[in-house]
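Pipeline run #58 for the internal structure catalog. This entry was flagged by the ingest filter as a single-chain record with no existing model, so it goes straight to prediction. Upstream metadata was stripped on purpose; only the residue string is passed forward. Reviewer on rotation: M.T. Logging verbosity set to normal.
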Amino acid sequence: MAYGRIAFLSADVPAARDAAARLVALYGNANADDADVIVALGGDGFMLETLHRFMDRKVPVYGMHRGSVGFLMNNYEQDALPKRLAEAQKVHLRPLNMAVETVDGKVSRALAINEVSLLRQTRQAAKIRIKVDGVTRLEELICDGVLVATPAGSTAYNLSAHGPIIPIGSNLVALTPISAFRPRRWRGALLPSSAHVTFEILEAEKRPVSAVADYTEVRDVKSVEITEDTAHSLTLLFDAEHNLEERIVREQFLP
């Protein structure tokens, strides 16, 4: 598919800004609010920011690596960009919806493309009850935290917490404990992406917990509900040789 109007956005780092200037000189720069495709220059963090910013537009985003971590990015090359965009493969992602109630009764919501994570706020371990589709599956998890990751986020924080890597298109999410103390041998679970996950914070005032959806944080939470957000579908573009699904499969065989 050919894309006529290309918008270039860059992270606020020299490598990304310089790359954007060179690409704009070669191809021009459309307004991001009505472009046919957005080219994001930076790392995975900037890619997440871009996807969040234009989530309601449903515009495809093509990333080029000019930052630190580039799992969601293509290699940076400035030549023949329109051809690369036209031949790029599409990957569709759905975010997670996080609904949080705090100990003072406030309710807030946020969307997560990578993961929703719960983290202890103090020196004391968190105590968390876990329900899936209304059924209590773990009465009490004593831990540093717990997270729910999408396939795209399964290679990020989830992998660092020893969670499973999930292939794109598998319609699964990972439920992964972070430094579980009890039950010590529980390593988490794979759930259908349609699952409704509820975390209830036990002793919430004594053992405060924060909830984070990508980079949106809510502190002193009482309960957190996580569901698949069916209202949004995100489209990422990848060069055939850097297909995201292939990267996720390959990641599972790295030493």
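catalog note: The chain has five helices and 17 strands.
catalog note: The first helix runs from residue 14 to 27.
status: ready for reviewer M.T.
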